[in-house]
Design brief:
Oligomer: single chain
Number of helices: 11
Strand order of the largest sheet: 3-2-1-7-18
Number of domains: 3
Structural class: alpha/beta
Distance between the termini: 37 Å
Number of strands: 25
Strand content: 25-35%
CATH class of the largest domain: Alpha Beta
Helix content: 25-40%
CATH architecture of the largest domain: 3-Layer(bba) Sandwich
Largest sheet: 5 strands, parallel
């Protein structure tokens, strides 16, 4: 087989992981990666720290400036894909240009959902997903100090942290619980207490009914008739996969691009990975979305291997969140928020030490864990779940000493697997 042309649209973590895997697997193949943005690859997860002033823009970039040159990869910025034509193996861009491919990876990520609120268009919608979003927010603030954040998910809380550290007065409007996808009410209470101590105010059980400008700035009218004064309003009510350009392509889309365990779509030689992909869940095998960094990296590896003609299988996504805020850390992985009588739960809250710990077990296996301000290695808990390591005899010890016992369980399982491999 001669040289093949691999085209990757998008340049986030999934795309870079795929590119590196392709290059390792097919040293002579041609690889091109395009980005709709006009920047080198950067980490959106670092934007809140840029907002707070903890880091500068030079700290954002995910790879050195000569990365693509050394890898032998053609990287082009400012290339927004607007159409995929599988029968011609072609991608067209908004600037009128196009690319041919032998294999295609769709890694176009996701964009903020724009809530339907009266007056929002007139005031201006500010999301927080890209470097341009960050610059827009800073420009709108321009030394002002009042911010209202719509939403209470991870992005909302990261923005709240960044703005609070910047010295802003922050109001978070939450229709339900804070970080409800990842943390129980006990853990949520600790997180909110810490945020309140940093000057962040929470408006619970309300939704914004209207947003309007007045002589003092912006007024956010709530569903109960109260209002919040602001200089800037940030929308963080969720994201949606960037799949609009696939209309008419024949590539199946649910919420995101539907893929199998090799990250293949229903169309030959077309793959998807990262926040745009709707792949199998680890626990059930059913398709779903899981827009987190570890999943993006693993999906990119699987897609890259398959694109290079190697055997590849993605085991499925596992919910996971590590949230660092104001010197504190909250961690959640797996089925940590699931209420199911089949599962055994160990749980304890220590308000005085601002700690919370929880393990969820299905028989002798760990299926979920949640901790606030407890010393541990998150990757080891993900390992124990993904490897289905038996911990029945060590559950209480793992609960009390998570760092030491999780490491011991991992090492024991690794020795066992090596023994099986050599046996």
């Amino acid at each position: 087989m001669g040289k093949r042309k691999h085209l990757v649209i998008g340049c986030g973590s999934a795309a870079l992981s795929a590119v590196e895997t392709i290059r390792r697997s097919g040293a002579d193949d041609e690889i091109k990666i395009t980005s709709a943005e006009n920047y080198p690859p950067y980490s959106p997860t670092a934007l809140p720290y840029l907002l707070s002033g903890r880091i500068g823009e030079s700290d954002l970039w995910m790879r050195p400036s000569d990365y693509f040159q050394k890898l032998g990869v053609n990287f082009q910025k400012g290339k927004e894909a607007v159409e995929v034509i599988p029968e011609r193996k072609e991608v067209r861009y908004r600037d009128g240009t196009s690319d041919k491919y032998d294999t295609l990876l769709i890694a176009t990520g996701a964009s903020p959902v724009k809530p339907a609120i009266e007056g929002l268009n007139e005031v201006g919608f500010v999301g927080f997903r890209t470097l341009d979003d960050y610059r827009c927010l800073v420009e709108q603030l321009n030394g002002k100090k009042r911010a209202v954040i719509l939403g209470a998910g991870l992005v909302a809380m990261e923005v709240a942290m960044g703005l609070a550290e910047k010295g802003c007065r922050v109001d978070v409007v939450a229709r339900s619980r804070v970080l409800r996808a990842y943390f129980d009410v006990e853990a949520e209470a600790l997180i909110k207490e810490i945020f309140r101590g940093e000057g962040v105010n929470f408006v619970a059980g309300q939704r914004p009914a209207a947003i309007r400008r007045n002589e003092r700035g912006i007024e956010v009218v709530l569903s109960n008739g109260d209002y919040l004064a602001a200089d800037v309003v940030v929308g963080a009510t969720g994201v949606k996969p960037n799949v609009g350009f696939l209309e008419g392509s024949g590539i199946k889309v649910g919420t995101g691009v539907l893929v199998d365990k090799s990250m293949r779509t229903n169309v030959s030689d077309v793959f998807a990975a990262g926040d745009v992909a709707e792949g199998p869940d680890f626990f059930t095998g059913k398709p779903g979305m899981n827009a987190i960094l570890p999943s993006a990296v693993e999906q990119g590896k699987a897609a890259g291997a398959a694109m290079a003609g190697k055997e590849a299988s993605y085991e499925g996504w596992i919910p996971m969140n590590v949230f660092s805020f104001f010197g504190h850390v909250a961690f959640s992985v797996g089925l940590s928020t699931i209420a199911d009588p089949r599962y055994r739960v160990l749980k304890e809250a220590d308000d005085n030490r601002r700690q919370f710990r929880k393990l969820v077990l299905d028989g002798d296996r760990l299926v979920g864990a949640m901790f606030v301000n407890v010393d541990l290695d998150p990757g080891l808990f993900l390992y124990l779940i993904r490897k289905r390591v038996s911990i029945e005899a060590h559950a209480e010890a793992l609960f009390e000493h998570p760092r030491e016992i999780s490491r011991g369980l991992m090492l024991r399982n690794e020795r066992r697997e090596i023994g099986l491999a050599w046996g």
